[in-house]
Amino acid sequence: MTTAIDQHEKIAEIRSRFDRLPRVRLALLPTPFHEAPRLAEAIGVGRLFFKRDDLTGLAFGGNKTRNLEFRMADAVEQGADVFVAGLEVHSNSARQVTAAANLLGMSPILLLRTDGPVAWQGNVLVDRVLGADIRFIETTDKAVMDRALANVAEEQRQLGKKPFVMNHNPSFAMGSALAYVLCTLEIVEQSDAAGIEPTHLYMASGNKGHAGLLLAKELLGARFQPVAISQHYADDRVSGALDGVRAAAAALGYETHLTEADVESYDDFVETKYGAPSQRGLEAIALAARTEGLLLDPIYTGKALAGLIEHARTGKVGPESTVVFVHTGGQPALFSFADALLDAFPLAEDARI
Ligand SMILES: Cc1ncc(COP(=O)(O)O)c(C=O)c1O
């Protein structure tokens, strides 16, 4: 049996391994942890807690701030003065990257993938406020994006700058997994302080953050089940999570024995496509807002809560369960999808201004 002292020592030991990794501090940690009893009752789970990674502190916060602590360390180490990133037009990542670059004294340049005219709302509006040098690119081809990033870097070198390019290299997956090992350690400590033992950890994740939850569970020998609700349809939900687990374990000097059977991930709640709101996601947003005054987003966390609601409805997560929902942020997208929200939440017939 694991005692509280064993667990405390294990957590300290895992944390000590992180001290050897290159890292810059960006997030306000630990993020808050609180119970949501009215939502738990509405959904029909025993107890429900929120881990507020939407409050990591950097320009509206979100899960990416944690992984940037690892991903931006190289740029700082190399003395970069320009930080170049290629991401989706409405990316939460782009917003947090821009804010982090500012904080670290690097000029942010964003290459944002778009497939049409851009509405200046949500994340892309915040990117502008933050002063990113924004350039749009219409392509779905990673090679084209990589060439464009290389061209921007060359342009900056010609100007006498030291650019650092962040693209979709494997350090993205590893940084996210490492980040969410640390987040899980916080959850375990905060659960302990609250006198609870979680049965499930729900999180909006394709596979990257999910990998961290899985590895932390293995390292701690914990009993909770990490459950990922994916924001997109992808074949690598399970294999990608295991790749992330292995990369993070190797970076920390641990062995991992996790297999596909340990990975629980669902893409049933995408409902539409990546980047588009879903009916059940909007209903979940309304429920969280109207029971707890808590805002979720239409692309990630609303869909993840829709997953939990459905799992509670079907009895997969029972009334005896204690669920921790990792809120990964993304709320600026509420403003980008104002039309969908207005349709979903009509005013009363007799509303007058
Ligand atoms: C708000 C939010 N939630 C969840 C995710 C998914 O994170 P990952 O698939 O990297 O675990 C993202 C990633 O972009 C995000 O912005």
Summarize the structure.
The protein has 353 residues and is an alpha/beta fold. 46% of the residues lie in helices and 14% in strands.
Question: Describe it for me?
Answer:
By secondary structure, this protein is of the alpha/beta class. The chain folds into two domains: 4-62 and 171-344, 3-Layer(aba) Sandwich (Rossmann fold); 64-166, 3-Layer(aba) Sandwich (Rossmann fold). It has helices at 4-18, 37-43, 64-71, 73-77, 92-103, 122-129, 142-158, 171-194, 208-220, 237-252, 279-292, 301-313, 333-336, 338-344, and strands at residues 33-35, 47-52, 82-88, 107-113, 133-137, 163-166, 200-204, 225-229, 264-266, 322-327. The strands form two sheets. It has a six-stranded mixed β-sheet, with helices on both faces. The longest helix has 24 residues, at 171-194. The chain is globular, with a radius of gyration of 20 Å. The N and C termini lie far apart (63 Å). It binds pyridoxal-5'-phosphate. The site of pyridoxal-5'-phosphate has 18 residues, from helix 5 and helix 9. Pyridoxal-5'-phosphate is lined by residues 62-63, 92-93, 176, 204-206, 208-210, 231, 297, 300-301, 328-330.
Number of strands: 10
Could you report the average pLDDT, rounded to the nearest whole number? Answer: 95
Helix content: 40-55%
Work out the strand percent. 5-15%
By secondary-structure content and strand pairing, the structural class works out as alpha/beta
Radius of gyration (Å)? 20 Å
CATH topology of the largest domain: Rossmann fold
CATH architecture of the largest domain: 3-Layer(aba) Sandwich
Q: Report the sheet with the most strands, covering strand number, pairing sense and barrel closure.
A: 6 strands, mixed
